[in-house]
Amino acid sequence: MSAAQHLSDDDLAKIYTFAVQLGKDAGVILMKFAQARWSDNGSGAQLFTEKDSAVDIVTKADEDVETFIKNAIEKKYPTHKFLGEETYSKGASQDYLIGDEPTWCIDPLDGTVNYTHLFPMFCVSIGFIVDGRAVIGVIYAPFTAQLFSACRGRGAWLNETQRLPLRDQPLPPNAPQGCVLSVEWGKDRKDAPDGNLHRKVDSFLNMAVEPGGRGGKGGMVHGVRSLGSATLDLAYVALGAFDIWWEGGCWEWDVAAGVAIVQEAGGLVTTANPPADVKNAPIEDVRLGSRLYLAIRPAGPSPATGESARESQERVVREVWRRVRHLDYSRPGA
Amino acid sequence: MSAAQHLSDDDLAKIYTFAVQLGKDAGVILMKFAQARWSDNGSGAQLFTEKDSAVDIVTKADEDVETFIKNAIEKKYPTHKFLGEETYSKGASQDYLIGDEPTWCIDPLDGTVNYTHLFPMFCVSIGFIVDGRAVIGVIYAPFTAQLFSACRGRGAWLNETQRLPLRDQPLPPNAPQGCVLSVEWGKDRKDAPDGNLHRKVDSFLNMAVEPGGRGGKGGMVHGVRSLGSATLDLAYVALGAFDIWWEGGCWEWDVAAGVAIVQEAGGLVTTANPPADVKNAPIEDVRLGSRLYLAIRPAGPSPATGESARESQERVVREVWRRVRHLDYSRPGA
């Protein structure tokens, strides 16, 4: 009997309600720390002394929010496993730790650089995983007051009131044309011709240039976006705003909640790296620990092509695979 | 006697109040049209028939908002000149039309691709120009409920309550390291080695790679962001979230409001294209019609380097110029 079978629909609904409130409360803490750094705003000044640097404050926000979430979960669900970014960074290895048991997978602050710079694209990310699959996701970006959430079987939502996706038009018949592509430059900035940065930028260029360009790989996407938050990239895929998100290097705490929300909204998440047979290889759901992600937004069936939603998403996956290079991210020890 | 001298501080304050309300009202219209496209939301359905396409709706939103703004201004200030994106696109040329007289320069919808895709980074942009200088700016992004505004001598504001910049820490002594760079891929996607897309991506790479990389040009910026809205790029420079915005190709209606807000917040806006003598060339305020923009965020003086705010901004301008290529955007007939 799998762990999931111990959790009834009613259990899951209660866990979902708890997770949504936890996300809101964590977001309030993040904003309190952010506001403490605003130039002409004394509201949070008493939290810090003059000599605390921006980096100190951000580290404290990150740690305080993770502790807050961890304590709340341990009190409410003492038998559940807890994995946070801090759990990993303080551990000896970054082995993949998610098994079959009910597991919380948390990023207290995704978009750390944005948070440091007070760019609003930062959030808290709370994922709940059973049998290795993300079944509940809560993402809250407090500066723009956008809450994304989903629970398996209960739909995906913006601010608990608007069902996701907001946009589920058919995927364009000539995709990636007409698509908005979301990508990230990441932290790996080595100037090596075969390093990840150059592999990424080659791939971005293939997706962006005019049709026929780049040796026939030109994808002429409608737009290229970079937010600096993998978690919010996934949230905007679930919303329908980003048609394609392609990225390597994230960890499971960056994506657990987002994958749950995208999948519940009707999107597809598979691997970023093209297989040998791009045209025919089976398209499998991504493994959370893979560090390589390609997400396609929810879409209605395509009257123009006669495809089902899934067929059109798989077509777009293959069109992306045809244009991108392999990325070289693995797990330590993997 | 210049036109500006006809406008007292009190006159300007009244125009500012009027412009802020106009921005809020225009944003409400934009959101009404956006919501009419949401999948499971019938609230605006009566506005459109089944056969209206997404493109029809976006075009109608754009035109309706421009007409709304134009009518309101003509009624309240019949002697003022009005320039909107539609004015240009329907005109015979794209000559630079801004002179010394009081002039409204409007983009009813900046971030059109985002709006089509329901990605929240779209906005209305209202600039008021006197003697060729943007003196009032109002930018409202209704989906994230963020209103940016400024009036010469009255400060720059987020949501009318938080003074901009929110973040005015000294610019990093080793900038562009530590800086968030905002750039856009744009619509020019020709696969020509010397085309604007390749010039841009070369420049992005120089700014992004590790120090010492790319023949010594590696800038190792903290992050690279692309929002798909020049107007909001400038808004986030004014806030302090983006340290550097470098872009070519926009028109004056994309930037008039943003330039007013950045300058009033204490930021610097000059040209994107490096001069022959990068080290010593004077750094002049940008001309609104130039189509080439480099903005540096507001910053406090740097105790570490002994620089004034302006000196540190000029240092960063030169560090950017050293790493970017010339972009080839001109005005028709210029």
From TrEMBL, chains A, B:
SUPFAM superfamilies according to UniProt: Carbohydrate phosphatase (SSF56655)
Catalytic activities: a myo-inositol phosphate + H2O = myo-inositol + phosphate
Pfam family, one: Inositol_P
Cofactor: Mg(2+)
Claim: Cytoplasm is one of the keywords in the record: no
Similarity field: Belongs to the inositol monophosphatase superfamily.
Protein name: Inositol-1-monophosphatase
Gene source species: Apiospora phragmitis
